[in-house]
Amino acid sequence: MRAIDAGILICIECHELNKQEADEQICTRCGALVHARRPNSLVRTWALLITAAILYIPANLLPIMTVNSLGQGDPSTIMSGVIQLVQHGMIPIAAVVFIASILVPTFKLVGIALLLFSVQRRQPLSARQRIVMYRFIEFIGRWSMLDIFVIAILVAVVNFGRLASIEANLGAIAFASVVILTMLAAVTFDPRLIWDNTESDDDHD
Which pLDDT score is estimated for 46? Predict the structure, then answer.
């Protein structure tokens, strides 16, 4: 049995359990408005996800940073940076950048889209599979900012005028936007929706 079937609502602000007594329920602890499910969760998540998917294209096509040496700049995208690292024999670092900057954002976009489709169209994914995917997406979200942190540190540290300097480019802004939007999409998605249409799933074996 779900908590909502027993008339119990959880406050998303302080996580207090409240007995449902009215259409507009107020949390007994913090006074926040309590909803059975987050209002417009699917619509908001789709909006954030589609925006992130659109920005994902310039994030990978535009240069993410420019390395200036002796007055000459060498702009590089995420993928070209990975290739340069491989060419210089720094394969472990290249693997970390590739996983954190390409695989993880791609997995998050696809994973959240699959969650939305499975909830809305009752796709053949069990509730257990959906919740594992959701928790994994939440867990890996923090590592997507690795490239942005590295660029921010390099811009601050490597600044020797015309001798050597590093500048962030538009690709970094687009990439940071993708990461933030996918993190917000994961937060906006209400995981309780996973259990609302799975009564026929065999989740209790």
Answer: 94
